[in-house]
Amino acid sequence: MRFFQCLSFLCAVVVLSVAAKPTSPPAIRRFPMRGTPVRAARNMTQAELYARALTLRKPTRRSTAQRRQTSNTPVTRFASVSVKDSTTGTVVGNLVMGEVGWSISSGGSAPTFKNTGTSATVQTQQQLTWSDAPANPYTSFGIGQCSAGASTNIGAGSAAVLCLVNARSQVPAGSTPTAVATNLLPGGTGLAETGVWTLDYATNVATPQWINPDGTTPTTYIVENSATGQVYVTGDVNAASQALGATLVPITLSFTATTT
Question: Which residues constitute the signal peptide according to the record (predicted)?
């Protein structure tokens, strides 16, 4: 009799322990297992509805997501150019084309140049064409000798100056000074470069990069003779000022661009 009582007690303990064992909630699946009846959406929990709505694609890291690419389709822009003091940012006038080259004047309208490039915000070694005077054969805007035989080596410690010029034909970007006819030396003996412009369409500033005959690329400054308004290009403002006996003020070419 006692044996049967003990056996009954053990059975009861086993039943209670099984009943008390916690059960894990069923796993939430995006799709029902094969053979499982499909549940209606109204009977699903929020977690089940979210799981079912997930995309089939694997997660993609942001670093590998496709980035916006610069279009290779040529973009033509027209830029109306004015001149600012590089130190104060104040507009001091417009470039004016004269018999002795480019100078700055507070009167007259700003010249317009054309550039065909890409959609990139910053573009280097660009060509600018003077579009205000289509009948003028000297339309490629660049930098060159102010006079025949003048040094084309500029840089720190050099008093040499160059001028903004209009060339009769473009000089390929990346070239060292090349003989080409310019408005200052129309005989074709002048040395000049035209593919020198860096155009920043975020700041609307055009800056030149001159290449010396030895291939070096000095910091290139556009400056104004404060007494005459004449514009020069140099690699050392102080040295050039002392050599010319004039005060040369660094200036910035600012533009307003429109796209065709």
Answer: 1-20
